[in-house]
Amino acid sequence: MRNRNTFIGSAVILLLLAACTSTRPGPHQAPLDGPAPAAETIKLPEQTAEEQVAELERLEIEANYVPALGRGDVLDIAVYDEPDLTISGIPIRTDGKISFPLAGEVQAEGLSVAELSQSLTDGLEKYILAPKVSIIVQEFNSQKYTIFGEVVEPGVYPLTTEISITAALASAGGLNKGNFRATTVELADLSHAFIARDGKILPVNFTRLIRQGDLRYDLSLQSGDYIYIPSGLSKEVYILGEVTNAMMFAYREDMPMSRTLAQAEGFTPDADLKRIHIVRGSLHNPTVIMINFEEVLKGNAREVALEPGDIIYVPPTGLTSFARVVDKLVPTMQALQLGILLNDTRNN
Predict the structure, then answer these.
(1) What is the DSSP string of 9-38?
(2) CA nearest to 14, candidates 41, 46, 36
(3) Pairing relationship of beta strands 311-314 and 236-241 according to DSSP bridges
(4) How far apart are CA 199 and CA 332, in angstroms?
(5) φ, ψ for residue 94 (rounded to 5)?
(6) Which residues pair with 200 in a beta bridge?
(7) Per-residue pLDDT tens for 271-302?
(8) Do the first three CATH levels of 3-46+235-347 and 56-65+142-229 match, i.e. the same topology?
(9) Cα-atom radius of gyration of the chain, to the nearest Å?
(10) Can you tell me whether residue 311 is helix, strand or coil?
């Protein structure tokens, strides 16, 4: 740790990266090999509001979301005109199965309500003529979404019914507020808020949605969705990727990148020190700064001062596009934030 505090200087290299399949650099891609370019700032192309909304509409259409049953869900099952086969409060056990009279042990985890109903029907047909099975989910405990950050009640919530982003925020008590010069102010930084699904950022503009009431961004949630509302007062800095200790910590004034990296306690053998990324700004429209850290260690370049909200990402050797960088950032950020949330919950 002491030795890493001797890091000096840094050469700032900015490359534009996104598509990982093309062999020629396109408008979203720059090659990662070859000599380092001169220092400059390149911002990734920003989606227009129309492009964002079109992508969200496509996601809604393609999703056709039918939640699958899972462990911990509780079911009410009835067979028409068979009172002895009307049972409430049947749990899906940890082995993913339920027990039902005549049908015996039936796999439930991973099935939709309609698929489980058909499975029970098939099992009961040996004993009942044309059984009609009805299933109601009493508790959808396996389907969850997460809200973390500047909301009144951050946490993991059950997805018991169709719910939109704004409804989910309302369920969490709304955005946190504070007092400033006798005036109530919101503490949330909506410009950096995001929603992630399956490790990917969705193009939801929280400022337009919350401040301007643009309901075109009010996406319906799916199980596993993760909403993060950062603070507008105390911003975090992240160190992620091929480091010994990925971490999130509070931003401090005059924070150089090299000294910050020392807190990560070293790099893995796969770390590509020639192309350390600083992701600055909104994840929807970031500025990507790529640093040749080997030049920093040699003292051939000036130090880089961090800004609030920066994400330092140490990529593995061979990573070829910024699109893949974002895919790797989000799950790690979620894990760190959830760890803090769980610790806060235990302490309270």
Answers:
(1) --EEE------SS-SS--TT---SSSSPPP
(2) 41
(3) parallel
(4) 9
(5) -65, -20
(6) 197
(7) 988 888 888 877 777 788 888 888 888 888 77
(8) yes
(9) 25
(10) strand
Domain ranges, ordered by start, for the chain: 3-46+235-347, 56-65+142-229, 74-139
**Cβ atoms within 10 Å, residue 266:** 14
CATH architecture of the domain with residue range 3-46+235-347: Roll (3.10)
56-65+142-229 classified as CATH 3.10.560.10: yes
CA distances from 205 to 73, 195, 216 (A): 33, 9, 10
Using alpha carbons, list the distances in angstroms from residue 20 to 194, 243, 319: 23, 23, 9
13: CB partners within 8 A, 6+ apart: 36, 37, 39, 275, 289, 290, 291, 292
- At 289, the amino acid letter reads I
Domain 74-139 belongs to what architecture? 2-Layer Sandwich (3.30)
- CB-CB contact of 145 with 334 (8 Å): no
pTM: 0.65
What does the pLDDT look like over 187-229, one tens digit per residue? 788 888 899 888 788 889 999 999 999 999 999 998 889 999 9
Go through the chain and tell me how many residues it has.
348
Pairing of strands 226-229, 144-149: parallel
Q: Which two tokens stand for residue 113?
A: 């309500």
Q: What are phi and psi of 295, to 5 degrees?
A: -70, -30
Residue 27 burial by Cβ neighbours in a 10 Å radius (0-12, 13-18, 19+): exposed
**Tokens matching residue 199:** 């490790």
Amino acid at 287: T
How far is the C-alpha of 176 from the C-alpha of 185, rounded, in Å? Answer: 9
- The single residue listed with the structure tokens 């909200």 is 309
